[in-house]
Every structure is written in structure tokens, then in C-alpha cells.
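Re: that chain you flagged

S.,

Sorry for the slow reply, it's been a week of failed gels. I finally had a moment to sit down with the sequence you sent. For the record, here it is as I used it:
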Amino acid sequence: STGAAIWAMERGMAGVVGVSNATDFLRAHRDGPLTAEAVPVHRGRSQQLWEAVIRREVDG
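Prediction finished late last night. Pasting the C-alpha cells below so you have them in one place:
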């Protein structure tokens, strides 16, 4: 919802809420930095779909 809110605010829009969230954890992370990147898959008039990937530094 944060990415969608920033996108909407830049266009003078308001009222952004999260409709759903699906998260898959492939393995545990215990120590060290993580890097997250989110990219829009679809940005429609009333809904958006974003894909977020979180990587560990040790995995590249």
C-alpha cells in the first residue's frame, strides 16, 4: 500500500487501502541486511497490483 499511496499522491489522488496481501516465505532469515524491491505489475483506475521481492545480501 505504501507504493500505491506514493503513486496516487503524486497524481493528486487519495484513499489508498490494501485490498489483499499474499506472502510466501521460502526460507528463514536470521542475520544480516535484506534488500526489498517492489515494482508495479498493474496500475488501474481503482486498483493496483505490485510484486515485491526481498533478497538477502549473501544470495545476491
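What I noticed first: The helical segments are 2-10.

Talk soon,
D.
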